[in-house]
Amino acid sequence: MGAGPNLAATVAAIHLTSVVLATAAYLVRAVALRGARTSPAHLAQALAADLWAGLLAFPLYGAGLWRLFGGLEKPLDWYTAHPLFWTKLGLITCLMVLELPVQVALFPLQVAKSRRQPLVLTDARGRLAFGANVAGVALMCALVPVAALMARGVGRGETSRAHGGDACAVEAIFQARCVPCHATGQRLAGLDLVGAPVHSLAGRSSSQWPDEPLVSPGAPEASLLVRKLAGTQGSARGARMPLAGALEPAGVDTVARWVRDGARPCER
Questions:
Q1: Domain end point (choices 128, 151, 174)
Q2: Predicted TM-score (pTM) of this structure
Q3: Same structural domain, 125 and 187
Q4: Angle of helix 83-114 relative to helix 123-151, nearest 10 degrees?
Q5: End-of-domain residue from the set 100, 130, 151
Q6: What does the pLDDT read at residue 2?
Q7: Mean pLDDT, consecutive 10-residue segments, the chain of 268 residues?
Q8: Cα dist from 127 to 37, 96, 101, 105, 122, whole Å
Q9: Which alpha helices (H) appear in the chain, and where do they start and end?
Q10: Using CA atoms, how far apart are residues 237 and 24, in angstroms rounded to an integer?
Q11: What residues have CB less than 8 Å from 54, skipping those under 6 apart?
Q12: Which of 218-237 are b and which e, b meaning 16 or more Cβ less than 10 Å from the residue's Cβ?
């Protein structure tokens, strides 16, 4: 069963707040590293910001992985079928690589500080750490628009759909959010999403409102399924689905786009 909207919103808030705070920590660390080779005060500030950046990595990556694999908002297939997801993953990988020279310079100093030993940042390590940190700040800032565009479905063009991206994503959405109520044992509204693939809904009428097609290929506005997910079905057509919590706009857009493109089957 898909996660409730409150949990999804809480994890998303933790993730986004961590992104903002981590970016701020990176920026403070970069500014401090600029003068850390000659100023003990700047070095102390760099170490403090580095500690905060390390602590924030736990909610940042933890919440991000939970959103990715936990099915809180979108199924995993929705992400992997999106070209910008791989762009975002590439930026994160580069960010981790850039963190290595920073930690080579600062981690020994963190250990020395905890042991009350003298703190000495060599010129070579300091310059390398500063440059890597500045590049890291740029990558952190670049991640924000990439994530925003991905969340809005920008970039999911014909290439992605031609490989069954939307179809497979819709199948995953239904498995996570709809099957708990529309399975063989329950079949609410006479709908069994376990016994038949989602593309079999194309051209099929609602058991409750026979004049309404569940999925009308090429016409999402005429498809009861899309309208029920979007909440535009009207009071005469029952409650919005899923009952456990409304699907996020990006998920509704994915289903509508799948219907508009012909409601084709998932081809993995």
A1: 151
A2: 0.62
A3: no
A4: 150
A5: 151
A6: 43
A7: 65 94 97 94 97 97 92 71 90 97 97 95 95 96 90 57 66 80 64 70 84 88 91 89 86 90 79
A8: 9, 18, 10, 10, 9
A9: 5-35, 40-69, 76-80, 83-114, 123-151, 158-162, 165-177, 224-230, 249-260
A10: 49
A11: none
A12: eebeebbbbbbbbeebeeee
Q: Report the pLDDT value the prediction gives residue 153, as an integer from 0 to 100.
A: 62
**What does the alpha-carbon distance between residue 46 and residue 53 come to, in Å, rounded to a whole number?**
10
pLDDT computed for residue 160 by the predictor: 44
- Name residues whose C-beta falls within 8 Å of residue 262's C-beta, 6 or more positions apart in sequence: 217, 218
**Residues 78 and 188 reside in one and the same domain:** no
The answer to whether position 24 is within a domain reads: yes
Longest CA–CA span in the chain (Å) reads: 80
- The label of the residue with tokens 């403090």 reads 48
The rounded distance, in Å, linking the Cα atoms of 170 and 198 is: 8
Structure confidence at residue 25 (pLDDT): 97
Two structure tokens written together for 232: 């535009």
Dihedral-angle region of residue 116 (phi above 0 means left; psi in -120 to 50 means alpha; beta otherwise) = left
Q: Which two tokens stand for residue 268?
A: 């993995």
Q: Is the peptide bond before 83 cis (omega within 30 degrees of 0)?
A: no
Side-chain half-sphere exposure of 5, counting CA atoms within 13 A: 9
> What would the 3-class secondary structure string for 175-234 be?
HHHCCCCCCCCCCHHHCCCCCCCHHHHECCECCCCCCCECECCCCHHHCHHHHHHHCCCC
Residue with structure tokens 């919590």?
245
Looking at the DSSP bridge assignments, the partners of residue 202 are 215
